[in-house]
Specification:
Blueprint (H helix, E strand, L loop, with lengths): L6 E4 L5 H12 L3 E6 L4 H10 L3 E5 L5 H15 L4 E4 L14 H25 L4 E6 L12 H21 L4 E8 L5 H9 L23 H12 L10 E4 L14
Helix pairs in contact: 1-7, 3-4, 4-5
């Protein structure tokens, strides 16, 4: 087991990628704090009961006090914290014209400020090394027109990752980031249904978008998450890696007639 006796907090782990990461970490021997919003308590507590050594804590990450309380809850429950996965994110649909100050500020608060505050608080409690994995997005490099605020936030998270790794690596802070591409989570499935796609939309995504013939699965993202926080990656710091089925930068897909 690669995470035997390690203590991990995975934010946004009541569903989707976060849930898959929490389950994989637990299978590798970690004690895991599941996190979600208050509205996700039932789902989060169910996951915690299903795992061998886990607990659930609700927190609204746009609230700085609740960020601090979440770290304190981990320390109180398990005694320390070795691994922090900043997975929770808000993904509002908005563009230049529809993004107001409140929406922009909320997106930055959840997607950038909360990871910063959680890292800061967790680092203050570290006993040996703190391993942080930030879950970004390929949208960090530009993003879709209707994901403007979200894309900006993920670009900022990428800079935060590299800055903290560079500034505090010698002090035992290891921070890396993975940028997933299109992942078929329950939330993503429902979002596309609301957008008007048919129920079988994952089966009809064109090969120009998914060269491998299907979308990525949360469990596949969890596999790479494990790699970055395991002992075998002890000297990797400040890395940002795209998890997509094609070269994201400079891609020139074959045109279809």
């Amino acid at each position: 087991m690669q995470l035997q006796n390690k203590i991990a907090l995975v934010t946004g782990s009541a569903t989707g990628i976060g849930e898959a990461i929490a389950r994989r970490f637990a299978a590798e021997g970690a004690r895991v704090m599941i996190h979600g919003r208050e509205a996700e308590r039932e789902a989060g507590e169910t996951i915690a009961r299903e795992l061998p050594n886990a607990a659930f804590c609700a927190a609204q990450l746009e609230n700085p006090d609740e960020c601090a309380a979440l770290i304190e809850a981990v320390i109180q429950q398990f005694g320390s914290l070795d691994i922090l996965v900043n997975n929770a994110a808000t993904i509002p649909r908005s563009n230049l014209h529809t993004t107001d100050a409140a929406l922009f500020d909320h997106t930055i608060a959840v997607n950038v400020r909360a990871p910063f505050l959680l890292i800061k608080k967790a680092f203050a409690h570290k006993q040996n090394e703190l391993r942080v994995l930030n879950i970004g997005s390929v949208n960090a490099y530009c993003g879709e027109a209707n994901l403007m605020a979200y894309s900006v936030s993920k670009g900022a998270l990428m800079t935060l990752t590299r800055n903290l790794a560079d500034a505090h690596g010698a002090e035992g802070l290891r921070v890396n980031q993975i940028n997933p591409g299109w992942v078929l989570t329950p939330n993503e499935y429902q979002t596309k249904i609301k957008d008007g796609l048919p129920e079988n939309w994952p089966d009809i995504v064109p090969r120009s978008v998914v060269p491998g013939g299907r979308l990525l699965k949360p469990e596949e993202i969890a596999h790479f998450a494990l790699m970055f926080v395991a002992d075998d990656a002890a000297l990797i710091n400040g890395a940002v890696v795209e998890l997509e089925q094609h070269p994201f930068i400079g891609r020139n897909p074959t045109k279809e007639a």
